[in-house]
Specification:
Number of domains: 2
CATH topology of the largest domain: Rossmann fold
CATH superfamily of the largest domain: ANL, N-terminal domain
Structural class: alpha/beta
Strand content: 15-25%
Bound molecules: coenzyme A, adenosine monophosphate
Radius of gyration: 24 Å
Strand order of the largest sheet: 5-4-17-16-18-19-20
């Protein structure tokens, strides 16, 4: 069973250029590359340099030329608005070409940045593809982020135009976007020339004269434009992701390597073919949304689903099964948290029985650790392969996966399987030495990374080196710790930095600490991620107040919760802050976050030998108990 996978993996390691050149030959190029892998400026490796390509052409036009014009390209399914709409490849191209015309008419051209802050509506996909069509660089910002986060991204990307909508819908709540956008633009130093607003019927946004333009009016008079060839190494998009501080990292994706790797992954990993229906139940604001709602399924000539809803509550825990049955989805990709939510509402899977799921062949999960209970539940209830795969915003596609299209299907519980072809994954110790099978260390990838991964950070080559390449020379640091067993199965255990995963959303506790520390009464603080049955992890914060503060502690706690919500956004799910007298530290003054976290999760822990004052740890244990954590959990 493993042979095709083993063979592909071997080839990708022995002759990566030949391996990826074959994949590149399956894509449309205006001009083929001079070099498959350009290593003339190490450690900045570039794929397909000298080549010219257009991402939108590969996603739409090429399929139309090959007879797929009348096939559904994108199905918008929105239980929150009771709306469904099918766009064929021809229809989607028409909209995208026109919106490309709108952007070009506003002076947006190759290399200009366009920021997209939108809910899960087709206009978000149209905007992304239109940018790709004219060679502009899009930067999509997730709707659950607050104005402050948006402003940080505006300042870094300096977009000429921002595209937004009047509102998003969270289950039944209407979330107006416009005041967040206006607030962000006001805060930002870099001002866009224009904002294009898609007005939704449930909420009308007030427009700012001269700056704001109406999507529909612009589209009504727009002329379609053709695809603009760009260098394979030109940026397609910037996607900001949490780093270890409040400043997010601008992950860059190029055009050429991205088309090649993502198209290849559709068959090799997900085992889908042109014409199949593929559904990534995520959000366009995340990397999964970029790679597997928009780009990869369209590169492959599939039908992709854009779902505006939640796994539960829109209207019930059967909605995933309804969408699969109705649109004949072959492969679903989502985060384990979505399945935990479904399982909680419908533990015996009764709602599954109401639907014909005969089209449904595979479930892929990623974004956070797949807990054994969720895996078992999904396997039992669905009776199809349930595949855990591991990747990151930076990598753009899976580092480890059961490569179903290469007939590799063997699940070891707790493991996202083996490295996918292209990934020379190793486990090293602090001295950059490989450790033995089964030993935990840093999961690192030997350079060069395969195509489709980040070539650098936006306008920040040094930041790219500092964040990913410096600590383990010759390797890319994933910042995940784990081990590889004797059979080559990889186990991802924990982040080595302050990143936590909340409902599949990546957040930095350091960024939250920066906000809490800004409260005038807070002298010192610590935020950590604790286990949560639904969301995987949730952040909790401890506050030490300045001497002499007499204000009610409850009030201060509430204020800090509100500050995180206002500055990062509701997506941070920061709901618990607690005032404590002091924080447990080492003698050198380092806060014992790891130990506090273990206590909170009721896991075994050792009191560190370097602890300054063990009494403080006991106090912390008591504080956690009062919050319902630690021993109170079981
Ligand atoms: N725009 C505005 N607000 C948003 C938002 C968006 N796009 N997405 C989430 N929020 C808000 C929610 O309304 C919620 O606000 P609240 O504090 O006022 O209730 C908060 O952010 C937290 O949202 P979320 O983490 O989604 O929690 P939830 O309790 O609403 O739903 C799940 C829980 C598990 C159902 C939900 O997280 C889910 O569907 N997850 C799927 C995972 C996923 O798509 N991951 C992406 C990587 S694959
Ligand atoms: P993001 O960049 O938001 O995709 O988050 C990437 C991080 O999520 C990784 O570095 C891991 O810590 C975690 N992650 C993603 N997929 C998995 C998985 N299958 N198993 C364990 N952790 C995962």
């Amino acid at each position: 069973m493993d042979n095709l996978y083993e063979e592909a993996y071997r080839q990708s390691m022995e002759d990566p250029e030949d391996f990826w050149e074959k994949a590149a030959n399956e894509c449309h190029w205006y001009k083929k590359w001079d070099k498959v892998l350009d290593d003339s400026n190490k450690p900045f490796y570039r794929w397909f340099s000298g080549g010219e390509i257009n991402t939108c052409y590969n996603a739409l036009d090429w399929h139309i030329e090959n007879g797929r014009g009348n096939q559904a390209a994108l199905i918008y399914d929105s239980p929150v608005t009771n709306n469904k709409k099918i766009y064929t490849y021809l229809e989607l191209r028409e909209k995208v070409a026109k919106f490309g015309g709108v952007l070009a008419g506003l002076g947006v051209s190759k290399g200009d940045r366009v920021l997209i802050y939108m809910p899960m509506i087709p206009q978000a996909a149209i905007a992304m593809l239109a940018c790709a069509r004219i060679g502009a660089v899009h930067s999509v910002v997730f709707g659950g982020f607050a104005a402050n986060e948006l402003a940080t991204r505006i300042n870094d990307a300096k977009p000429k135009v921002i595209i937004s909508a009047s509102c998003g819908i969270e289950v039944t709540k209407i979330i107006p976007y416009k005041h967040l956008l206006d607030g962000a633009v006001e805060m930002a130093e870099a001002k866009p020339e224009h904002c294009i607003i898609f007005q939704r019927s449930m909420e009308k946004a007030e427009m700012i004269n001269g700056r704001d333009l109406d999507w529909n009016s612009l589209m009504a008079k727009a002329e379609p434009v053709d695809c603009v060839p760009v260098a394979a190494t030109d940026p397609l998009y910037i996607l900001y992701t949490s780093g270890t501080t409040g400043v997010p990292k601008g992950v860059v994706r190029d055009n050429g390597g991205h088309v090649v790797a993502l198209k290849w992954s559709m068959k090799a990993i997900y085992n889908v073919d042109a014409g199949d229906v593929y559904w990534a139940a995520s959000d366009v604001g995340w990397v999964v949304g970029h790679s597997y709602i928009i780009y990869a399924p369209l590169f492959m000539g599939c039908t992709t689903i854009l779902f505006e809803g939640k796994p539960v509550g829109t209207p019930d825990a059967g909605v995933f099964w309804r969408v699969i049955a109705e649109h004949k989805v072959k492969c679903l990709f989502t985060a384990p948290t979505a399945f935990r939510a479904i399982k909680r509402e419908d533990p015996s899977g009764e709602l599954i029985k109401n639907y014909d799921l005969s089209s449904f062949k595979t479930l892929f999960l990623a974004g956070e650790r797949l807990d054994p209970d969720t895996l078992k539940w999904a396997e039992n209830k669905l009776g199809i392969p349930v595949i855990d795969h591991w990747w990151q915003t930076e990598t753009g596609w899976a580092i480890c996966a059961n490569c179903l299209g290469l007939h590799h299907y063997q699940v070891k519980k707790g493991s996202p399987t083996k490295p996918a072809p292209g990934w020379n994954l190793q486990v090293v110790d602090q001295n950059n030495q490989q450790v033995k099978a089964g030993e935990i260390g840093a999961l690192v990838v030997k350079l060069p990374l395969p195509p489709g991964t980040l070539p650098t950070l936006w306008n920040n080559d040094q930041g790219y080196i500092d964040s990913y390449l410096e600590e383990f020379p010759g390797y890319y640091k994933t910042a995940d710790a784990g081990y590889i067993d004797e059979q080559g199965y990889v186990f991802v255990m924990a982040r080595t930095d302050d990143i936590i995963n909340v409902a599949g959303h990546r957040l930095s506790t350091g960024a939250m600490e920066e906000i809490l520390a800004d409260h005038p009464d807070v002298a010192e603080c610590a935020v950590l991620g604790v286990d949560d049955k639904l969301k995987g992890q949730v952040p909790i914060g401890f506050l030490v107040l300045n001497a002499g503060v007499t204000k009610d502690h409850n009030e201060i706690e509430k204020e800090t919760v509100q500050m995180v919500r206002e500055r990062i956004g509701p997506v941070a799910a920061f709901k618990t802050a607690m005032v404590v007298k002091r924080l447990p530290k080492t003698r050198s003054g380092k806060i014992l976050r790891g130990t506090i976290q273990k206590i909170a999760d009721n896991k075994a822990f050792k009191v560190p030998a370097t602890i300054d004052n063990p009494v403080i740890l006991n106090e912390m244990e008591q504080a956690l108990l009062n919050l319902g954590y630690g021993k109170a959990r079981k």
